[in-house]
């Protein structure tokens, strides 16, 4: 008489189905599998509880939320790896052999994933950027809105006219959000430079160009400088201490914080280029306000913006021939 269809047999209590012994399925492995599920479930609940607690303590502070999320993710990941190895590998020799085989296979099959994972630690350890920073990574400009083990997520912004020829195509002609959310692999930091607009000095130098006719240059320059100074003097005051801290950390030469104009002579006009300091955000609105005030000052002083003009010095002779009326018959020639 045959025994039960499902039973555990042998010293290892291997599972048999209808007399067929299943390889690797025994009572001990079943207990290990159950403990593994309990471990992962416990770590999941722990991570949710820690993030909830940190959110209540830190409130809506973006950087606090980011670092809490990264710390919880790293802690739970390490605990999961250690716990999994402790449950399934009771022999150090088997653990070393298994880790070696798995590492070789994973390194070959998931090269990009491993590189991106390494890039994640380089980003954090090297303080390459943080959530909320405005960066250019690869061919994408924008604000970092998320960062995980494999990918960086960026809210894309438009490009100034000077770089409109770069890929990908862009329809927003200034540094404002385009609405596209771009995901980039962390591994790209090993292949291309990362430009950070806000990491150690949350200001950048901007330039505006004004073509002025030769006779108006002495009256136009004070109007331009006064307007830009009024709109940026508070920015220069805030940037002063930040620049001093930057000089203490890096070898940075002194830079002008106040607006400064540079004159260039062209074939048609005098071009004033004004260099001034701005914040990394809302640059378009600032330049719009400056441009409006300067144009009002030019109008009051009767100063015009120079432009290219053309004088036609010659024109070929024109011969006008009248067409026969539709009521007149056309004679054959």
What features would you describe in this structure?
- With 333 residues, the chain is an alpha+beta fold.
- The chain has three domains: 6-109, no CATH class; 125-196, SH3 type barrels; 203-301, Alpha-Beta Plaits.
- Helix content is 43%, strand content 22%.
- It is elongated and about 110 Å long.
Extended strand count = 11
Structural class: alpha+beta
Helix % is 40-55%
Question: Which segments are poorly predicted (pLDDT under 50) over 5 or more consecutive residues?
Answer: none
Largest sheet composition: 5 strands, antiparallel
Q: What's the mean pLDDT score?
A: 79
Strand residues, percent:
15-25%
Summed up, the domain count is: 3
H/E series? EEEHHHHEEEEEEHEEH
Anisotropy-based shape: elongated
Provide the spatial order of strands within the biggest beta sheet: 7-6-5-4-8
Total of helices: 6
CA gyration radius, whole angstroms? 35 Å
| Spatial gap, N to C terminus | 121 Å
Summary, kept brief:
The protein is of the alpha+beta class and 333 residues long. The chain has helices at residues 27-58, 62-88, 92-109, 111-125, 217-249, 283-301, and strands at 6-9, 14-17, 20-26, 134-137, 140-147, 151-157, 177-185, 194-196, 203-212, 260-265, 270-279.
What descriptors fit this protein?
Alpha-Beta Plaits; alpha+beta; 3 domains; 6 helices; 333 residues; SH3 type barrels; five-stranded antiparallel sheet
Summarize the SSE layout with pairings.
Elements: E1 6-9, E2 14-17, E3 20-26, H1 27-58, H2 62-88, H3 92-109, H4 111-125, E4 134-137, E5 140-147, E6 151-157, E7 177-185, E8 194-196, E9 203-212, H5 217-249, E10 260-265, E11 270-279, H6 283-301
Antiparallel strand pairs: 1-2, 2-3, 4-5, 4-8, 5-6, 6-7, 9-11, 10-11
């Amino acid at each position: 008489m045959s025994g039960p269809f499902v039973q555990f047999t042998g010293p290892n209590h291997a599972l048999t189905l209808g007399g067929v012994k299943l390889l690797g399925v025994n009572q001990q492995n079943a207990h290990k599998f159950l403990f593994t599920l309990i471990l992962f479930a416990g770590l999941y609940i722990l991570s949710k509880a820690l993030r909830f607690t940190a959110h209540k303590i830190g409130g809506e502070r973006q950087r606090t939320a980011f670092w809490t999320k990264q710390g919880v993710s790293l802690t739970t990941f390490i605990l999961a790896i250690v716990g999994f190895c402790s449950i399934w590998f009771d022999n150090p020799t088997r653990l070393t052999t298994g880790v070696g085989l798995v590492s070789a296979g994973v390194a070959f099959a998931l090269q990009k994933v491993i590189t991106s994972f390494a890039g994640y630690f380089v980003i954090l350890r090297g303080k390459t950027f943080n959530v909320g920073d405005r960066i250019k990574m690869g061919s994408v400009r924008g604000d970092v809105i998320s960062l995980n083990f494999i990918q960086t997520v960026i809210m894309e912004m438009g490009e100034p006219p000077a770089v409109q020829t770069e890929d990908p195509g862009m329809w927003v002609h200034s540094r404002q959000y385009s609405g596209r959310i771009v995901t980039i692999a962390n591994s790209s930091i090993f292949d291309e430079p990362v430009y950070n607009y806000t990491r150690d000095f949350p200001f950048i130098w901007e330039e505006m160009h004004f073509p002025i006719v030769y006779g108006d240059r002495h009256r136009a320059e004070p109007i331009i400088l006064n307007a830009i100074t009024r709109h940026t003097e508070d920015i220069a005051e805030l940037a002063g201490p930040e620049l001093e801290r930057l000089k203490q950390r890096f070898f940075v030469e002194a830079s002008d914080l106040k607006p400064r104009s540079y004159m260039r002579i062209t074939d048609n006009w005098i071009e004033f280029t004004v260099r001034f300091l701005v914040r990394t955000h809302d640059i378009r609105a600032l330049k719009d306000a400056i441009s409006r005030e300067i144009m009002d000052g030019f109008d009051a002083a009767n100063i015009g913006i120079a432009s290219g003009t053309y004088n036609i010095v010659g024109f070929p002779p024109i011969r006008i021939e009248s067409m026969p009326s539709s009521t007149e018959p056309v004679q054959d020639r």
